[in-house]
Amino acid sequence: MPPNHASAIIRWRDQVDELGGGLGAFDQSATVSTMLFGCHSWLNHHAGTASAEEAATMHRIKAELEAWMSARGLRYTQ
To answer: Which domain of life is it from (predicted)?
Structure first.
């Protein structure tokens, strides 16, 4: 996954907040699962070469998405 996918994932997460209600009001498990896959993949391939801020943001988003899945009784597996 190219490094620029991080910016797309970060922007998507920002847009969820802009729509109102934040991630808690979001109800699309397929989208969350896809974004979570993107986070895992990006962190596995690019975290070591990214800026500390970008890597920290991706870790935070990954944790938020995992918590979202867990709260709904869903489990992400690669």
So the answer is: Bacteria
The pTM for the full model equals 0.89
b/e 27-39 (16+ beta carbons within 10 angstroms → b): eeeeebbebbebb
The pLDDT tens digits for 8-55 are 999 999 999 998 888 888 888 989 999 999 999 999 999 999 999 999
Structure tokens given for 58? 């991706």
Q: Compute the distance between CA of residue 53 and CA of residue 55 in angstroms, rounded to an integer.
A: 6
Q: Is 16 left (phi over 0), alpha (psi -120 to 50) or beta?
A: alpha
